[in-house]
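Just wondering, does anyone understand these tokens?
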Amino acid sequence: RLINFLLFMIVAGIIGAGASAYLILRYANEDAQYLELAGELRVLSQQITTSSRQSTAGDAAAFDQLAQSRSNFNRALGVLKNGTPNLDSPQAMLSSELGELDGLWQEVNGASSTIVDNRERILFLHEVAKTLNDSIPELQAEYNNVVEILLENNAPADQVSVAQRQSWLAERIARNVDKMLQGGEAATEAADQFNLDASLFGSVLNGMLQGNRAMRISRVTDKDAKSSLEEINKLFEFVSGSVDEIFQASPDLLKARTAANQIVEDSPKVVESI
């Protein structure tokens, strides 16, 4: 009986040791996968922060990176929360921690969505700013040429004054577009001022070419001056044809800027939670 008992205990010990080894290996493998997922989430969080800033700065490729990082973060977090057929979820052990992380992620995910959804208008405004900054020096040179021609030909004082004011107005238009891109409290005021200035610039330019009694602008008749005005019209055509679209895009860019700032602010909390 003693021998049978000892044999039984040996067999039970072997079975128990085997079962323990299996469970240890299984849990060690799961822990390794959990840690791998957590590491992936940490990297993705940093990528989201970086690409959100680059997106609002006008980098087209960053929007794709942001969208992909969002998708991957959702996938990895979903595995931790819900598990897969081959991997149990650690939800039972980490319910409060995963709940905290999920809450923070919902805020970041929503902010990321705001940026991605406004991609076209963000890129459009940056294109406008680039076009303006590239064309303003040439546009001002053309208006300076108009002023010189008008002065040489003893043109009416109102024509000279209007031409000089247009050069200054073009510079302010470009400056306000830059302010719209920067966001912040000044963006809304800059958008309103841009809308007024761009409309006024276009009306005055057309008045100098065609004449406008209501605005008391006489038509420029000098051939060389008209040639410069027509060149200015071509340079400004991209903006003048999109004034309403530019003005309407400003609030969306402001939302995207605010969203990017929120992501930057929440990023350390997300990483700490991970």
